Amino acid sequence: MRCKFPKSKTIIRNLSRILDMKILDINLENKTLSFVFDSNGVIKKVKRELRCIGYPLNRVHKCDPQTEFSL
Description:
It is a single chain. This protein is an alpha+beta fold. The protein has one domain: 2-Layer Sandwich (Gyrase A, domain 2), CATH 3.30.1360. It is 32% helix and 30% strand. The chain has two helices and four strands, in the order αββαββ. It has a four-stranded antiparallel sheet with strand order 1-2-4-3, covered by helices on one side. A hairpin with a 4-residue loop joins β3 and β4 (67-70). The radius of gyration is 11 Å and the shape is globular. The relative contact order is 0.21.
């Protein structure tokens, strides 16, 4: 995934360490992150990682086949 924004690169770099998920889209204007994952434990890891880098999750919206989270 190529990004125009340095913030997106930071999010991608940090979340790429979580093996059971794949980022589909990051939209900083709408403050959304869409990704697919294999287990519910991944959500906790993503929340923790985003909070550590200064992008805490404010809202969770589950969709099929992807899940979208608000930053």
